[in-house]
Amino acid sequence: MKIVIMGCGRVGAQLASVMDANGHDVTVLDIEDYSFRRLAPNFGGTALLGNGTEEDSLRRAGIEKADAFVAVTQGDNRNVMAAQICKHIFNVPKVICRIYDPLRQELYSTLGLDAFSPTTILTQMLREKLED
């Protein structure tokens, strides 16, 4: 599977490294080249400096042949914008978007985006632990 990941923070770097180790064709896109230091030393994918909200950067990352796109930057607005571009302009079959603000999750779902909020997920996990 060809996967493009926008954001090489802790989550993006770990996801890229795991998917690469599992034999997938992975490209990581980030606006800071320093972020690529988080990738596993044996990462065999591609690390590209660029902005995932810009069509040229996405094309350089191979978005036109991508099976999946994952937006995991620190910015909800950047994530949702890039996800919409990939879903609606490049017709990427699987688009996943991280959002921190759980109030936005329902809105993004109405836009047809597969969005998840770590805030909501962690809250649910903590509630379950407390109620055990």
Describe it.
By secondary structure, this protein is an alpha/beta fold. It has five helices and six strands, in the order E-H-E-E-H-E-H-E-H-E-H. Strands 3-2-1-4-5-6 form a six-stranded parallel sheet, sandwiched between helices.
Name the features:
132 residues; alpha/beta; Rossmann fold; 6-stranded parallel β-sheet; 5 helices
Please give the structural blueprint:
Layout lengths: L1 E5 L3 H12 L3 E6 L15 E4 L5 H6 L7 E4 L4 H14 L4 E5 L3 H9 L3 E3 L1 H14 L1
- Architecture per CATH nomenclature, i.e. the level-2 architecture: 3-Layer(aba) Sandwich
- If you compute it from the alpha carbons, what radius of gyration comes out, rounded to the nearest whole angstrom? 15 Å
Q: Which CATH first-tier class would you pick?
A: Alpha Beta
Major sheet summary line: 6 strands, parallel
Summarize the structure.
By secondary structure, the protein is α/β, with parallel strands linked by helices.
